[in-house]
Every structure is written in structure tokens, then in C-alpha cells.
Design a protein that fits this description.
Length: 161
């Protein structure tokens, strides 16, 4: 039921604005991560999984309305389109359909960052092996030399004025 920190961060990047159509409230630093299909507290395996596909960010006002059952999103698992309905005077009426919020972290960027991260992990592991005196796979690329020290920002002997 609890949304992990990494999942929270992903949701903030995917849904920076409240998911309710017409709401422009920014929910990156405030708001709620909300299950689209309600989490079943008594039978967690019966639906409402805590996964990015079943979560979105809502402002506090719209989260309260959803909790009270006054608005309800239903996301089509095949298309990612969310249909919102509102209950007023005991009747439900469709509000609108919205496409899945646009992912601000593109798949290409994610793939690129994953390659960089894996390279970093390999170099870090090689450094630990060397420190322990273990053999290192010679086919892996050698670690880059550390960067040379940066020039001081201010030289009292040669002021910039």
C-alpha cells in the first residue's frame, strides 16, 4: 500500500500536475499519490496494485473528493486512457477522458541513464576488488584518471579588476 520513495519520484516526474482534468495544481511538492483502482486492504492480491500503472498524483482537494467517492477515475489498461466520472445528486456522469499523462522522462533518456549507471557500478566494483587485492576482469575498460584539480576561482596575486 505504501508508495516507495523511488515510485513517488517517478510519479512526480510523470504527473507534475494534478491528474484531474482541468486542474492546474502542481503536485510535485504537495499532493497525494493515489491508487486509481482502489487498494484492497483486506485482500491486497485482489486488485489495486501499488504500481506506477495504477497510481497518479492528485492535489489535496481532488484526493479528498475521490476518497469521498464524488469523483472516480477508471484507466483502460490497454490504451492508458482515464475516464473520469463525477457523482452529483446521487447520479454519476462522465466528466471527460484524458490520455495517460505524458512521461517527462523519455524512454531514451532512461535507457541512456541506465547504461551510465551500470558503467559506474562496474567501475566501482573493480575499484573495490583492486582495494581488496583481487583480480579484476581485464576486458573491462580501465577506470578513467581522476580529473586534474580545478584552477582556483580567485587568485589574490592577480585580481580580476
Amino acid at each position: 500500500y505504501q508508495v516507495s520513495r523511488s515510485m513517488q519520484e517517478l510519479l512526480r516526474q510523470i504527473d507534475p500536475i494534478c491528474a484531474v482534468p482541468g486542474c492546474a495544481t502542481i503536485v510535485t511538492t504537495s499532493g497525494e499519490s493515489d491508487h486509481i483502482e482502489e487498494f484492497d486492504h483486506q485482500h491486497p492480491d485482489r486488485g489495486g496494485p501499488t504500481s506506477p500503472q495504477n497510481l497518479h498524483r492528485l492535489c489535496y482537494s481532488h484526493h479528498r473528493l475521490k476518497t469521498l467517492g464524488l469523483i472516480d477515475p477508471i484507466r483502460d489498461p490497454n490504451t492508458g486512457v482515464t475516464t473520469w466520472t463525477a457523482r452529483t445528486r446521487g447520479r454519476s456522469r462522465p466528466l471527460t477522458e484524458t490520455a495517460r499523462n505524458t512521461d517527462l522522462v523519455t524512454r531514451e533518456l532512461g535507457d541512456h541513464l541506465r547504461v551510465i549507471w551500470n558503467s559506474y557500478l562496474e567501475r566501482e566494483e573493480d575499484a573495490h576488488r583492486r582495494a581488496r587485492g583481487e583480480a579484476v576482469d581485464e576486458e573491462s575498460e580501465p577506470a578513467a584518471d581522476p580529473p586534474s584539480p580545478a584552477a582556483p576561482l580567485y587568485d589574490p596575486e592577480h585580481p580580476p579588476y
